[in-house]
Amino acid sequence: MSLVRAGLWLIATVLAARQLVAVLSTPRGERLTDLETWIGPNGVLHVKGSLYDGTDPFTGTPFSGLVLKPLSRAAEQALGWGWTFGSLALVVALGLVAARALPQPVSRRTSLFAAPVAISLLMLSLPVRNAFTLGQTSILPVLLVLLGCFAVRGERASGVLIGVAAALQPTVLLFAPLLWFTGRRRAAVTSGLTFVGATALAWAALPHDSWTYWVHHLAGTGLSTEPAAGANQSLHGMLLRLGLEGPLEIGLFAALGVTVAVLGLRRAVTYARDGQLLLAVAVTGCVAVAVSPTTWQHQLLWVLLAVVGSVGKRVSDRYMWPVLVILALTLPSKMLLPNMPVVEPIRDNVVLLAALAAACVVPFLSRTSPLYRTPIPTDYAAPVPARWTWVPLLPLWRRVLSRPNLILEFLLIRVGYSAYQQVRLAATGGTISGGRVTAESHGHQVHSIEKFLHIDIEHWVNHGVVDHAPWLKDFFNFYYTSFHFVVPLSLLALLYVRRPAEYRWARSALGFATLLALIGFWAYPLAPPRLMPDLGFIDTVHGAQDFSKPNYGTLTELTNQYAAMPSLHFGWSLWCGIVIVVLARRRWVKALGLVHPLCTVSAIVATGNHWVLDAVGGATVVGLGFFLTYALQGPRVKTVTAAASEIGGVPARRRGSSRPGAGPPSPREA
């Protein structure tokens, strides 16, 4: 356990170091840009007039400007280093306080692992990354609230910290009702008085700016130049993005804001009285995210804190909510959802929707629920010896027999494919110049090897189809562009519905094969036959290419044209064939499963998109994918359940579980 804990702290340290290096190695004009806009040589805090005039006005409270003004006298280099390391210290402190604030009783293992995990998640989150890179103060209000609720002694000190946080970010005042209705009335009153005092101090020092912020712009509403931008994850921003404007939008925003505030604060008070104060703080923060006129991406840390809430009756469902929140707070929304008009309202507001769900919808369990500590356990297959004794099995994943969560599977497929696209695009490190030369050189290498092996049939097949069988050319073009995704996704869907345990086995093998293929794309950029200008191949799918233009038109903007080795077109089709042959019961279905890889390999060669050896590479990564699945998870479910039955085991019982009624799996699960 100590070794695992040391590993988690090492991960947190590496992430922190990477964040520091990424910020400090960025050119001065590109790092801490928001801070530079405020306190730089030409920043708004140096302007003698109002903070809120000009093309790029200050958007914080007058008290924020008053706090930041002394920093404008610091040397630029020293300020950059101090701000960066100071932000790191705030993140570490935030993670430590959040870990200690987990609702009791907390197991010893959880308490030991919570701090490094919390710090790592914070480092990976988009709000912290933006705060580091752009130079923003949004971490400070969150930390002040957590310190006020969990670290300091005495209600007055707590109220002072929360009041200062509200002076920096006014929607933090929503924590005053939480304090009041949970019995900490002195802290609630103190927070309000501190907020009023800090605001009055700023009003005395900056009367014109205070009038502009609090009266003319109604607590900062409208100061932003682009309130409808996707970065504004508030109800106001969402309504503007939906096309609503004017009095209708203002009235609807006010009504929705009041509704969310009432529902969210009632839930927060309930969780606080239940002993889940950290969850109550997170829910209140999510309410503040929604009802604020502008909530920029760097102000969304409250949503990440909502992962502490327990949701779901089963262990297998317990991870759904944390995974959804972590993905929403760490990945760009375009990686979570495709760029399609039908999902734009969700994609553009994904973090806001997570905040609204935490504030008003998600059924977090109370500590009095019997499922809070002991959810319904997951059913596992009993372990059995491997058929291949020479394979050193590593049972890191126990064989689960139940159907996985569909939402998480969709997210897994979408995020995996987005990562595949990004890596595939970046694999050559520059396809325009050196990448093209390297890829064409590798193309000549592969062509020479094929000629030596007498398997260089690509040119003959390509011209034979084009010159003598136009109908076959059209068929292969259609097959190449259409069946690459349709068949694997359809097969996965069928397995998910009819054979869930086998679905896990097949999905893992496909994932390993794709990961290995990405390594191949990165290590060996290869020009396909159609992009070898001196070999005379015909690109039947995209038409003739102008090789004098190094970007090949718009093709390279969509995908890396030199990700040919191994061929995932053939690899994925071979995976489909293997899965069908292994799982199908009828011989004609098995035979039909072999038709798909046969048609695919013919299509990739006839259209000039791959070499024969690319197909060999695709077959290799698929074979390794199935091998890694076997090595990590052991034999397939059918083999496991049959062997367990022979030795008198119970195939669908959780290892070490004495739960009554855990019988064998249903036919649909096994």
Primary descriptors:
single chain, 30 helices, 63% helix, globular
Task: Walk me through the structure.
This protein has 30 helices and no strands. With 670 residues, the protein is an all-alpha fold. The protein has three domains: 1-214, no CATH class; 221-376, no CATH class; 410-552 and 566-632. It starts with a helix and ends in a 24-residue tail after the last helix.
- How far is it from the N-terminal to the C-terminal residue, by CA? 35 Å
Into which percentage range does the β-strand content fall? under 5%
Overall mean pLDDT score?
Answer: 81
Low-confidence stretches: 430-434, 550-558, 643-670
Major beta-sheet overview: none
Cα-based radius of gyration, to the nearest Å: 29 Å
Order of helical and strand elements: HHHHHHHHHHHHHHHHHHHHHHHHHHHHHH
Structural class: mainly alpha
Overall domain count: 3
The total strand number stands at: 0
Describe the global form: globular
Helicity level: 55-70%
Number of helices: 30
Layout: helices, strands, pairs:
Layout: H1 2-24, H2 33-39, H3 62-68, H4 76-100, H5 108-124, H6 126-135, H7 139-151, H8 155-168, H9 175-181, H10 185-205, H11 207-216, H12 235-241, H13 246-273, H14 277-291, H15 301-305, H16 315-318, H17 320-330, H18 333-336, H19 344-347, H20 350-361, H21 406-426, H22 434-453, H23 458-468, H24 470-498, H25 500-523, H26 555-558, H27 568-583, H28 587-606, H29 612-633, H30 637-646
Helix pairs in contact: 1-4, 1-5, 3-10, 4-5, 4-6, 4-7, 7-8, 8-10, 9-10, 10-11, 12-13, 13-14, 13-20, 14-20, 21-25, 24-25, 24-27, 24-28, 25-27, 25-29, 27-28, 27-29
